[in-house]
Amino acid sequence: MYRKALLGMALLGLSGVVAANPYEYKLANGLKVVVKEDPRAPVVVSQIWYRAGSMDEVNGTTGVAHVLEHMMFKGTRKVPAGQFSKIIAEAGGRENAFTSHDYTAYFQQLQVDKLPLAFKLEADRMANLALTEREFSKEIKVVMEERRMRTDDNPQSLVGEQLNALAFEAHPYHHPIVGWMNDLENMRVEDARTWYRTWYAPNNATLVVVGDVKHDAVFRLAQQYFGPLKPHALPSRKPQKEPLQRGIKKVTVKAPAKQPYVAMAYRTPVLRNVTEDWEPYALEILAGVLDGYSAARLNQSLVRESRLANDVGAGYDDISRGPGLFIIDGTPSEGKSVAELEQGIRDQIVKLQRDGVSEEELQRVKAQVVAAQVYQRDSMFYQGMLIGNLESTGLSWRDEKTLLAKLNDVTAAQVKEVAIKYLQNDGLTVATLDPQPLDGKQQPQPQAGEFHVH
């Protein structure tokens, strides 16, 4: 079968391959392979992305995507529990995994000649994971402790969790990636097995390789190791749209903390058509106007000048499978209240909506926003991240250049227009932290994402 498949690829001139860098090929079982040749160092990054994240979970099993990510390191029939990481380390590589609302991904960074090893191990656990009661009962305790450390004992994370839970009523972004504690306490190994059997298949995955490789050689390796795996039917994914928000929502979170904190989330669109949509690009530049560099408006006005805040920031992600949020958050200075900081933020928004941005400021912000994206592309790992993120959220790696070009095309009028349209109360959710006595407990530092630690 393998020789026949290779012959077919040769006869067709690798049909499906784009004559540019990156290169793409799809195996007969549905696995998409994207290769970015980057010869700057004799290393390679291999990432396998499954289009299944916490948004695909159902009530009662929240957190199962992240739990399965942990279990993927707990052995197959060929590789005993704990050996995956050891084998990669002994080969001089490093590996990890992460879960998001939209996808779950696993990666290795190795010397180029060790790429077959990464493929062999990943293909094995894509099809042959040994989900035992013994390993599950140990690992679910690890996940619950992770939730305690990252969320329950972290006041800002608690605020973020409640912010999402209130901002999203119908959409599963309502649920935390790590899962609700009660669901974790009642999760069983069969829940993980069901998730694995449902979503872990070559026709629900994208293999991304970046490094000092030749694409045709990588395609042959992918065919060798992943080609024999069988696809299976995937569940239909129903649209899950948020109902119209009809006014401001507010929640107060009481938790042990040193300082109060406020987070404001505005409902926004995300990219669905990279060439025709323009609002997401304008929203990204708007985030840069407010918090794209050290002299951006929020920091300059609220931290340096009025000293209302110790820190304040804005963020927006235009690429996701679900609905978007534009978030502004901050910690008030000592002696200042959350209400004062919130009003200070609102004043800056009103000023922007009224006066807009000058052409000079716009060009300065664009330079910062675009430069930040270009710098990320210097990293092999983040080149792979961009490709995997685009492919797993319904876009394409081919959109990369368009994304940068469209950012450069944003006008001052468009920035003002999206500020007026989306930074308004009817689409706003506000979560505040009401700090309670610490009782001598030390607060852990915030951690980003749901990365697996093993």
UniProtKB/TrEMBL annotation:
Cofactor(s) in the UniProt record: Zn(2+)
Domain Peptidase M16 N-terminal: residue ranges: 32-178
Keyword Hydrolase included in the entry's annotation: yes
Domain Peptidase M16 C-terminal span(s) in chain numbering: 189-368
Keywords from the named record: Hydrolase, Metal-binding, Metalloprotease, Protease, Signal, Zinc
Signal peptide: 1-20
Biological process (GO), any one: proteolysis
Record flagged with keyword Signal: yes
Molecular function GO labels: metal ion binding; metalloendopeptidase activity
Disordered: annotated segments: 433-454
Record family assignment: Belongs to the peptidase M16 family.
Stated name of the protein: Zinc protease
